[in-house]
Write the structure tokens for this entry.
Amino acid sequence: MRDARGQVRRMPGLRLWLSGSWLLILILAAVFAPMISPHDPLEQDLFAARLPPFWQQGADPAFLLGTDSLGRDLLSRMLYGARLALTVALVAGTLTCLVGATLGLIAGYYRGWADLVISRLVDIWMAFPPVLFAILLIAVLGTGLTSIIVAIVVIDWTRFSRVVRAEAMSQGAMDYVASAQVAGRSRLGIALAEILPNVLPTIVALLTLEMGIAVIVEAILSFVNLSISTDQPTWGGMIAEGRTSIYQAWWVLVFPLAALFLTVLSFSQLGEGLKDYFDPVLR
Amino acid sequence: MSYLTTKDLTVRLRNGAPLLRKVSLAVKSGEVRALVGESGAGKSMIGKAVLGILPRAAKLTGGEILLDGEDLLTLPPKQRRAKIGAKVALIPQDPLTALNPSRRVGPQITDRLVDILGWKRKEAEDRAVELLDEVHIQSPERVMRSYPHELSGGMRQRILIASAFAAEPKLIIADEPTTALDVTVQKQILKLIREMQERHDTALLFVTHDLGVVSKISQSLTVLYAGKVIEETDVRTFFAAPKHAYSRALLAATPKYTDPDGSLMPVPDSIISEVEQEVAAFDAQLKR
């Protein structure tokens, strides 16, 4: 018996390339920020305040993307801001994924009372307004990088557990799980070796989405000045500062906003692309 | 002597509604027994109860399952799993969901040999190739490296059959193995199951709603209605002269390919109500 289905292969799409390259640029920028920044991100120069970006009249070529109202170089601040944004995205995203996906897998495959407890907990959790919850948590934990990460994990694990639970449930009802049971596999073995690989594409998509969301949450917290100490440049903090001078110097608001937008978009697109790539049926 | 015996097997929903009503049946070593009935009669449920994979909503509330003379239900769970894993195998209904889509086919066949029977991986792989050859799959090595979605439904069912026979089980439970396939493939698969069963001398419990299939594959059959055994007999007797009125109606309802234009004969209401009364009487008797 021959079958031609094995010959079908798909190329990773354009969006995987585009989003991947933006994120790669960002990672390089974050890692090499001290080397490639044209200025100290904290250095103030009131004589060079609110300089426009290079293509506008009155721009100083030394400040490529202009300066803010205290005369600090925007480009340098954004490069340093990328460090925090990416750290939060990677660490908080991964931790949230681990916590949420594990609970979701337990609830969806083992069912019973574990499912009951986890699902009710998710219901209760989702009833809190997330941003207020985050602000409340930071107020209790104090500001700082660890607090931001903890806050994101605590707020967002439900996103994973709900989706993974549903997926694990539908996979658990498949005949191949019954076959594995008959063949004498243990419950844990089935959950890890049979169910998890089939839920993985979804988890990967969610993980990258969550990284984007973590960047947004960090920006929101910075925007309300609850992120980390104010002397460290963050995109959210820059947006907050830019808001006050939007009519005099739009670039202070627009550049970090654009970086934020592109980053979040890239994360979600990367996830979609990777999902297709990991899915054995779509691959 | 019979290899699998169930005695008064009773399965209920969690809310107490009966799914199987004291089912007693026996499958002799090397024999093919068909289990027939309408949808929802509990055919598959018997297989699931034996294999210990009852759905969450159902619960085994009474009876015995003797496998090779040993009562499975009195064994501790771990030993029971090991015993079922080594002696019984399942050919599932839907080949499309019965293979894990994200794993290659090869390991899915060899898993049981390696995990339960402690074979070496290389030996298990050689055995798998041999089996795929036996179920008439060309270039088995290539198929072993494929993912399930790269193969057609008929191929997947062949793989599942090979996989079921891999550990040389003494009993195979086939749960409507041809229902999800189209008619021409059904015939091949049926022939293949029969051929494999004879060669390996395996007992087979063949769940089906198709009496045409029964006449081709099995030596004996059990008719089930609403989880109760209606008639138990050998195939020859059954097709010559079914004892129970319901069995007769069921037989009459089978479409005949000698008369393709003949109208379909549903089981008459009078017979349904008769058999329903019988079940009700049986329930009442159990309560007393």
User: Anything to note?
Assistant: The first strand of chain B starts at residue 2 and ends at 13.
